[in-house]
Design a protein that fits this description.
2 copies of one chain form a homodimer. Chain A is built from 18 helices and 24 strands. The radius of gyration of chain A is 25 Å and the shape is globular. In chain A, helix 1 packs parallel to helix 9 and helix 10 crosses helix 11. In chain A, strand 18 and strand 19 form a beta hairpin. The first copy, chain A, has 546 residues and is α/β, with parallel strands linked by helices. In chain A, strands 2-1-11-10-12-13-14-15 form an 8-stranded mixed beta sheet, with helices on both faces. A 7-stranded mixed beta sheet of chain A has the order 7-6-5-3-4-8-9, with helices on both faces. Chain A has a 4-stranded antiparallel beta sheet with strand order 16-17-18-19.
């Protein structure tokens, strides 16, 4: 027997409709690529987005067609998103930080017909125009005055299209399972793969993140969306802010400490979200200039693990609460947050820190599974490692065009590729990438945990740990250290430094000093390359055992 | 093109699964029907509910079968809900405050196969057993000791069934559109009609209500669910509390001021929800006993309009924030809430009151429409009346078994039967029932607004206003007054009292003093009966005009 409630497909055009109808005067403020601070309202954004939709329809864009954006966070970028999604086309966000080869691969793989872009990216597009044959035209998020003489053939200014078309355009009316957005993973192994979000998944992600214990946004918030719209949908902020009518501040291209601080203060921001490096730059700027924060209450930090120094500086020096979050492009991106349970909230700040440093707990709608190599569940004791899998209505079920084959296990969970622990209070902590974890005698050793501690040695500039083949234990840890310029050291200094900080059986079997520890495009240690370099390395313990 | 996210049907069993897995130790505390305060955890509730599911399967309950509950708010009642819904059966909540005839009609109309009930209701069930032939058995939410000698043939104690069955039961696995709950409207005209909720509608209602600006519940909240589970799903609390892991307090049968106050204080309640009469009883008790409230922060009040005295008493005397909410059985029930926009929040408390007295603003997922008799939209100016229609994924599309025919207009909106205004700030206010509004010269007059003011006259005990036929204006208002015992008055006293408080053209054309103003079962003025009594009444102005 079916229920008898209304048929109301969860399509994201309704989010902006809600904002325009019930929060129509609320502002979206942008530091524009052209320079000035620009103010529009949600009502104006819907009107302008509908005009752009008519322009896209005029260019023959059909439901399911991919239309890309290569742009900074701005109100114009939001208009492009809703213009594309409202008519059932797929908004493909391009990450300008990728290499040209990767971008061209992604554009061709997606088959993008149109690219919305900022003035910033015209040199790249001009240089690589011939490498993107599916692209029929470019719409530059600016006006004719700024566009003229740009040299990108056939490029149109979005303001011209907006002026030329009317705002009478019907949005929605399609299935909520329709594709809505496309975002490629950074692809540390193999080619980037596309995650194809649906209207339903984005709408549900919006509702789940709006819970008080998750993002908890309110109409009374002013939100600075530092996290880019090309970085897993700006963690949903360009949906969740209009959904509740929160005032939204878009930083454009400028993410340096001074620019971010200026927006935080002049716009009276209460909430923000970004990766740790942005906050490091902000904190450094504020220390230098003795600046203060008068309105900011909460920041959500994700993308990589939050350093304790950031947590403490925000709390101790500025009275700002940090929420550590974890997710992936494949998870829309929200997976877990370190918002406190009442038991954790009752602890002193110092005692809360271990929980705040973990990636946190899942909200309703996100299921986690922690399993060993045998597929059996690992205990939630805070020390047992397992592969982390995830399930829910906004978690990827497959990649675009079937890349990577079947992603789900027999229970429908997606393997994150991470290794994690979950403690008794339900806090998950990423301990390693599954491919980097060291499997010693049937037990797992976190390469990241050892290298993070080793990197704290005063003589170390960088440290890396990999597993090396061992006849008795399968694998044993090898520590590589790049010393600071002018330093010398012998292995025992590092082993003594680790002693007592890690389990005895985690102790590296050898320490090697190297001139170079290779980093990948995203700044993370390239373990794959290190493993290649040390293939066949004979540990002294292996020699003995053999 | 379809999105490629996971298939994860929104079924409510996942809500309790989430609570058991991530908030397994959080308590649900009940003032039991047997007397003592009883504590169980979400983990135990899931375990016990699964045992009950196996009992229901053993009784041959199939997906879509209706299983009723006639019970007070308790953990056992929650167990029955999830036991029923988890296996795809339909949980039909019966309102014990209805007359026996109505209850029997509803049980037969629904075709309930089993009724879960409390000891309280055994006399009613014994007396009316023969009138509910579809009911095969009764499960009493108690143990054998309390049940024995009850005299209800074939009744079983839930505790016996829980002890007899194991907890290994697979929930879910059906379509999210599957029917999940059934609740009949009180039916002021004609027979009660059934609203058939789906798993999807309840799940989405849960997510929408959990937003910070709506119910805003947190794992850190302790929630006293005074609003009954048979009253439009306890406004969703028995879904939303487990969804976030909030501690839940269930008052059982005792809703008097002293009992409610005791639970608020001993359990350190932070949030509660109930109709105005419950709060009136609590406030009266606290005034008498000079009691205080040490932990309560917020109360949501709905079911009927919030009197200003309650708002002020909570704010001024106890520091508790009141949120006025509006909804219907047909809206799951959330429609609007008076949570403040930043502009309203910036006002003094006195200046906020007019907004807090309104029914408020809709969250994302609820669409409102205000239309005149011609179907055209009314302006949102705070004074123009229109019929209020509503649309969304948790709004009724049809009644059970097709009762009442097609409910939706050509745009898919459900007509609430209410007349309302919406002001420039988006706050909706119910001004009348559509059938009671007085249509004078093409304009609408609120009968409720006039009678509320007239009832404030010191000589008035009750006042009612109806529209009476008029040859020139179609209808004109007639004011009926029941004076306080021993008072006498003449019409001019009431007209002078109204003068300046309402528009000139709203002034009643006549005032009639009556011995009796009839009230319906829910305590509201029975306008239908009054209109029958005054059919053909000749207004003095009509005599002149004619």
């Amino acid at each position: 027997m079916q229920g008898l409630m209304q048929d109301w497909p969860l399509t994201v055009d309704k989010v902006l409709d809600h904002a325009a109808e019930w929060h129509g005067e609320r502002e979206v403020v942008t530091r524009s690529v052209e320079g000035p601070i620009v103010r529009v309202t949600y009502g104006e954004i819907r009107d302008r987005a509908k005009r752009l939709s008519n322009a896209l329809l005029g260019f023959g864009i059909q439901p399911g067609d991919r239309v890309a954006t290569l742009a900074w966070n701005s109100a114009r970028h939001i208009e492009a998103w809703y213009a594309i999604m409202g008519i059932g086309a797929v908004c493909h966000t391009l990450n300008p930080r990728l290499f040209a080869d990767q971008l061209c691969y992604i554009i061709n793989h997606a088959g993008d017909r149109i690219i919305f872009t900022d003035l910033t990216f015209l040199p790249f597009l001009i240089e690589n125009r011939a490498r993107m044959p599916t692209v029929e035209r470019f719409i530059v998020l600016t006006d004719d005055d700024h566009l003229k003489g740009s040299g990108l053939e056939g490029a149109l200014a979005s303001e011209t299209l907006i002026a030329r078309h009317d705002a009478d355009c019907v949005w929605g009316g399609f299935d909520e399972q329709a594709a809505c957005g496309l975002c490629y993973t950074s692809g540390t192994t193999g080619n980037p793969k596309g995650v194809l979000y649906s209207h339903r998944s984005n709408f549900l992600h919006t509702l789940v993140t709006l819970q008080t214990d998750v993002m908890g946004l309110s109409v009374k918030d002013t939100v600075l969306a530092v996290v880019p719209m090309f970085h897993a949908n700006a963690w949903g902020l360009t949906f969740s802010c209009p959904a509740v009518g929160a005032k939204l501040i878009m930083p454009g291209a400028k993410m340096d400490g001074a620019s971010i601080h200026e927006l935080l203060e002049t716009e009276k921001v209460t909430f923000s979200a970004a990766v740790p490096t942005v906050w490091q730059m902000l904190l450094a700027h504020m220390r230098e200039t003795k600046a203060t924060l008068t309105t900011l209450k909460r920041v959500v930090i994700g993308g990589s693990a939050v350093p304790e120094a950031i947590l403490r500086a925000f709390h101790d020096d500025y009275g700002v609460d940090v929420v550590h979050a974890w997710g992936m492009t494949e998870t829309s991106p929200l997976g877990t947050l370190s918002t406190p349970t009442p038991e954790v909230a009752a602890l002193s700040f110092d005692d809360q820190i271990p929980y705040k440093l973990k990636q946190g707990r899942p909200p309703v709608g996100v299921q986690l599974k922690l399993t060993g190599d045998d597929g059996a569940a690992k205990p939630r004791d805070g020390t047992s490692f397992g592969r982390l899998s995830i399930r829910g209505p906004f978690i990827a079920g497959a990649y675009f065009k079937g890349d990577g084959g079947n992603l789900l296990d027999e229970e429908g969970f997606f393997d994150t590729g991470d290794v994690a622990t979950i403690d008794q209070a339900g806090y998950m902590q990423i301990t390693d990438r599954a491919k980097d974890v060291i499997k010693s005698g049937g037990e797992w050793i976190s390469s990241i945990e050892i290298e993070n501690i080793a990197a704290g040695h005063p003589k170390a500039l960088l440290a890396a740990v990999i597993g090396v083949a061992h006849p008795k234990w399968d694998e044993r840890p090898l520590l590589l250290v790049r010393l600071r310029d002018g330093e010398t050291a012998e292995p025992g200094e590092f082993l003594r430094y680790l002693d007592g900080k890690i389990a005895k059986w985690w102790m590296p079997d050898d320490v090697v000093f190297v001139d170079d520890i290779p980093l990948g495009a995203t700044g993370k240690i390239d373990k794959k390359l290190i493993r290649q370099r040390f293939e066949g390395y004979l540990l002294p313990t292996a020699a003995k055992a053999g």
